[in-house]
Design goal:
By secondary structure, the chain is mainly α. The protein folds into two domains: about 40 residues; about 40 residues. It has four helices and no strands. It starts with a helix and ends with a helix. This is Helix-turn-helix domain-containing protein.
Length: about 90
Amino acid sequence: MDIVTYCLSQDRNYHKTVEKYHVSYQQVYGWVKKYDTSGEDALRDGRGRTKAPEELTEADQQKLAMKKLEYENERLRAENAFLKKLQELQRRRR
């Protein structure tokens, strides 16, 4: 946002902005264009954002539910193996 603001305050002098902030001309131009089109929200980084449950399709919801069940199943297997090992160790002490 600082770079876009600076560029706009310099009457869209992209070259001056590039020299000051050491970024590429294409980046500055793209950011200013996004800002002009959609405002400040367009400059926010959306990478890695998880979708809200209501944004998921039915197939995506099923895949997510399946992954959760697989994770829970694996956790329960590990817990079960741990408890068996613990019981074995306790039996050996007696």
